[in-house]
C-alpha cells in the first residue's frame, strides 16, 4: 500500500504576499537630527517596535559636533550623513549616498525637520539678513532637498503601488503654528513666521504636483517643545511631540494630503 502525504495547498498569490511582506523595505530620512525633535525622531524610529524601518538616514551639518547622534552610530539601521541646508549644490551628492543604500527600493519618507528661529521681533527690529537666512534654511532648503530626493521617492511609490502612507511615500515639512496666518493674533516673529508660512505654501503645491505620483505631502506643527529652539519654558517634552508625530505618520493617508496638522493630528488653519 502506498502512503500519501497530504500537504496544505497554498496559493501562489499568498506566497508572493508573504515574500513581499518579508522583503519590504521602509526608509526614512530626517534632517536636523543632531538635536531636539530631529534627534528624538531618530531615537524613536530606531527603538520603537511599532514603527518598523529598515533604514534611518539622519543628517547633520557637522558629525564632529553631533556627539549624541554619533553615539547611536553602532545601530546598523542608522546612516549618519552630513548636509547643510544652505549648500543646495550638495543635495544631489546626498541623494546619491542614500541611493547607494536603498537601491531600487527608493526612499519612503522625507522629514524636512531642520530649521532656525530668531528671537521675538517687532517690525522696528527686523533685519533683512535675518529674513533672508530664515528663508534659505526654513523654506528654500527643504524645497531643494525634496527636489534632489524626489526620484528616490517616486521609485518607492512605484514599487509600493498597493500600499499607502509611510509604506509608500510621504514628505513631511516641519512647520509651526506661528506660520498660520489665521491664528496670528500677536504679530512679530517676522523671519520665522514668514518662512514657515512659505513652507506651508510649498507643502500645498507639492501635494498637488505629486498627487499622481502617489506621494503625500503634509505640514506638521510639532508643538512648543522644550528644545534649544523652543527654550526651557516650553510645555511639551521632546518625547511627547515625537510620539505624537510618529503616531500620526503611521496613520497618514490620502485624506491628509496637502494639509496642515499639529503633532496630535489635529487639522490647523492656514
TrEMBL record:
Keyword Oxidoreductase: yes
SUPFAM superfamilies membership: NAD(P)-binding Rossmann-fold domains (SSF51735)
Signal listed as a keyword: yes
Any GO CC annotation of this UniProt entry: cytoplasm
GO molecular function, one term: carbonyl reductase (NADPH) activity
Signal peptide: 1-20
Descriptive protein name: Uncharacterized protein LOC112683256
Amino acid at each position: 500500500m502506498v502512503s500519501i502525504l497530504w500537504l496544505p495547498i497554498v496559493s501562489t498569490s499568498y506566497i508572493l504576499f508573504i515574500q513581499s511582506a518579508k522583503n519590504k523595505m521602509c526608509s526614512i530620512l530626517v534632517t536636523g537630527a543632531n538635536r531636539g525633535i530631529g534627534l528624538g525622531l531618530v531615537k524613536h524610529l530606531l527603538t520603537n517596535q511599532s514603527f518598523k524601518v529598515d533604514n534611518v538616514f539622519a543628517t547633520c551639518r557637522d558629525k564632529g559636533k553631533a556627539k549624541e547622534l554619533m553615539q547611536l552610530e553602532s545601530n546598523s539601521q542608522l546612516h549618519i550623513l552630513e548636509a547643510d541646508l544652505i549648500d543646495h549644490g550638495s543635495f544631489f551628492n546626498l541623494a546619491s549616498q542614500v541611493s547607494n543604500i536603498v537601491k531600487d527600493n527608493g526612499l519612503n519618507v522625507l522629514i524636512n525637520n531642520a530649521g532656525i528661529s530668531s528671537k521675538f521681533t517687532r517690525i522696528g527690529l527686523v533685519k533683512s539678513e535675518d529674513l533672508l537666512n530664515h528663508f534659505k534654511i526654513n523654506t528654500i532648503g527643504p524645497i531643494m532637498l525634496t527636489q534632489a530626493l524626489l526620484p528616490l521617492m517616486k521609485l518607492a511609490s512605484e514599487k509600493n503601488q498597493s500600499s499607502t502612507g509611510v509604506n509608500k511615500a510621504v514628505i513631511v515639512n516641519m512647520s509651526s503654528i506661528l506660520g498660520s496666518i489665521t491664528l496670528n493674533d500677536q504679530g512679530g516673529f517676522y523671519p520665522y513666521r514668514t518662512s514657515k508660512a512659505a513652507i506651508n505654501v510649498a507643502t500645498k503645491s507639492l501635494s498637488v504636483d505629486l498627487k499622481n505620483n502617489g506621494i503625500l505631502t503634509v505640514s506638521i506643527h510639532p508643538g512648543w517643545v522644550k528644545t534649544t529652539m523652543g527654550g526651557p519654558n516650553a510645555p511639551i517634552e521632546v518625547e511627547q511631540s515625537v510620539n505624537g508625530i510618529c503616531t500620526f505618520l503611521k496613520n497618514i493617508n490620502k485624506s491628509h494630503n496637502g494639509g496642515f496638522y499639529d503633532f496630535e493630528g489635529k487639522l490647523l488653519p492656514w
